[in-house]
Amino acid sequence: MFDPSSSIQDFLVFGEFGDVNPSITDSSTFTFMTPERMEELFEHEIEGCFLYSRHWNPTNKYLSKALARMEDSESAQVAASGMAAISSTLLQLCESGSEIISAHTIYGGTYAFFKNFLPRFGIKIHFVDIQNLAAIEKLINDRTRVIYCESISNPLLEIADIPKISALAKARGLRLVVDNTFSPLILSPIRLGADIVVHSLTKFINGTSDCVAGGVCASDEFVHKLTDINSGAAMLLGAVLDSTRAASILKNLHSLHLRMRQHSRNAQFLAENFQNLGLKIFYPGLTTHPQHELLGSMMNKGYGFGGMLALDVGNLATANRLMTRMQEEKVGYLAVSLGYFKTLFSPPGHSTSSEIPKAERDAIGLSEGLVRFSIGLDNDIEHTFERIKKCLRETAVI
Ligand code: PLP
To answer: Can you give the pTM of this predicted structure?
Structure first.
């Protein structure tokens, strides 16, 4: 049976002198023994030969290979941010006149890129409830190129039925692109039928909130297209990851399985205890979550249901008071982003999802009182729960 972390475990690269970590490429450019060889490489890629670091460099190649192992894709390519991975993928797949069908609950930056940016280039977006397969099918036409969703959505933690959406996409010759940022290791979307997986490596995969990075996992053919010298969106838009960062992310990737287990264990504990307090809680590990069984049917066993949860405390003023108290009580930080070893919390309607207009947020159930948590790696989660409970009491949530 495929296990993503065992697949990464088998990825061993020696450094130049037998170092246990691969050597870091400290060069933007590479020498050639002859001008003919240089010309040859401009015409087609040759394994093990490098031209210029915006195109490829050995360190970025190592991290890309490790990501491909994790997602069980033929190939992968790293980028300077999750948004760079997403934007280059979509710009590679679409042209003026193309249409994209996207889940309406997605990260606010992706939503803004779709809604405000792509239409400037003649690309049309349809936002849809990704649970509603009939609605997706109805929107497909000859111009549709892509169905886009997040495996576990930001911030409402809805689960996309990847096998069913993939069947729809395949029947109509479309590409299914899945953002797997919230669920690395937990879900393997390509094995479930997705064509392309995008990641913000900034989050769980790096895990130390010290850099911004992204990745695209896909077929050899698609990665070649992305990096093509003459027409590749990644190559020509140029959002390349720095090699020193690629090296540090690769080291962190090797402990991802341990971290994901602990994030999930802690989130499950808090979610169950919040639910016992009668709070309105969104967490896919709860049996009351509408897609709990669906996630169970798709997930790789042993990594839990993830480190993200959301709590609806009714209104923004209460949410703000609660977050301020939790930061004072050292539960974690009032900060956007996720996947850090400390707990982070933020109000999505006024931060990472603020790009989504209020009327649409209301329509999708993204309440003003929603607090999104990225649960940390706390060793004593019971103590953390007691601290949160104190804050909930003091802000009259319970
Ligand atoms: N996808 C998801 C689900 C995210 O939460 C984010 C950022 O918050 C991104 C993509 C964008 O990633 P980055 O900030 O690395 O560009």
So the answer is: 0.98
